């Protein structure tokens, strides 16, 4: 395993020693459908599964005695082994300072570093590094004045500071993302996504419009009573169906069948898990 200089008050050396320390600090574990690093540089679990009713496709979040996620494993139905992420913190801080990601074969994949505003503790910058510790890109974040603040812009920059791309976000009155604008490295407007939700705040429709604001494609989502996606429909710019994907779940929520249909609703692929 490669050597790497951690930036959380540790000495340089083999990563394995630091990972062993994290493993020893684990005090509890929870299972989730999904997870993310939120605007406060904290790992947030989405839709917790009770023990004994966990589908194969899920995330395991491992916590230390302070309630911080120090390890996360992602299980995907296409692979038998999970990918793993470790999270490091500065002293007693609750905000992540750094994360190290490993692929499903246990090989070092990349590293991420996070910076938060010292007063609000909201994340203002995060950077990704390759396996040699070289900076790959940095993302700078801006927020509005809402309580809590909502992310309004993310700007990607190269190691030299040159702009790579930019995303701007707008929300509905419920605080749900409804408008996502895309800009190129030259700040050229490339298009936007427009999102709509059902009464349970599930994404019902996600439509892509190009740089001239013309509708290009739309994804439509249907859910069961447990808010699980059971059907995804792709439509073109004239609202014609171009393809459909359907999912079947078992009693604990694991996907056991996945079907793909073409524009004439002919079955072209049928997967069993």
What does the main sheet amount to?
Answer: 19 strands, antiparallel
Low-confidence stretches: 8-12
Number of helices: 1
Q: Regarding quaternary structure, how should these chains be classified? A: single chain
Overall average pLDDT: 93
Our estimate of the beta-strand percent is over 45%
SSE string, helix = H, strand = E? EEHEEEEEEEEEEEEEEEEEEE
Helix share, percent: under 10%
Q: From the alpha carbons, calculate the radius of gyration and give it in angstroms.
A: 21 Å
- How many strand units? 21
Give the terminus-to-terminus CA distance. 34 Å
| Secondary-structure-derived class | mainly beta
Shape: globular
General description of the model:
The protein is mainly β and 273 residues long. The protein has a domain at 1-129. The chain contains one helix and 21 strands. The chain has a 19-stranded antiparallel beta sheet, covered by helices on one side. Strands 1-2 form a two-stranded antiparallel ribbon. The model is unreliable at 8-12 (pLDDT under 50).
Summarize the structure.
The chain is mostly beta strands and about 270 residues long.
SSE layout:
Layout (H helix, E strand, L loop, with lengths): L2 E2 L8 E2 H11 L2 E10 L5 E7 L8 E6 L5 E7 L7 E7 L6 E7 L5 E9 L6 E7 L5 E9 L7 E7 L5 E9 L5 E7 L5 E9 L5 E8 L4 E9 L5 E7 L5 E9 L5 E7 L5 E6 L1
Antiparallel strand pairs: 1-2, 3-4, 3-5, 5-6, 6-7, 7-8, 8-9, 9-10, 10-11, 11-12, 12-13, 13-14, 14-15, 15-16, 16-17, 17-18, 18-19, 19-20, 20-21
